[in-house]
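Q: My labmate handed me this sequence with no annotations at all. I'd like to see what the chain might look like in three dimensions before we decide whether it's worth expressing. Could you predict it?
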Amino acid sequence: MRMIGPAILAVAVCGMLACGPARADIVPPMKGNDTGGIISFELATQADVKLLAVEHCARYGKVVKFLAADAQYGGYISFACRWVPYGAAERPLSVRY
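A: Here is what I predict for the chain of 97 residues:
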């Protein structure tokens, strides 16, 4: 008899979770962090991708380096945020944790 209460609660919780949507189809058009990011190719047809990437990396005091572009529906443009541009006379900064 003691197990009936928790069992009913478990069935109710599982029923609520089963009825809710998974929301796996929602993907942001631009996502990144201090090491780089990706930009949806659909956003690339509507906005200036270079400006978006430069502004994103500038928040961290870095410069942008574009890596790859998958120019198809559902594809992404990837970029990296670097401390100094390639070919600069200065050495890249190294951070030790």
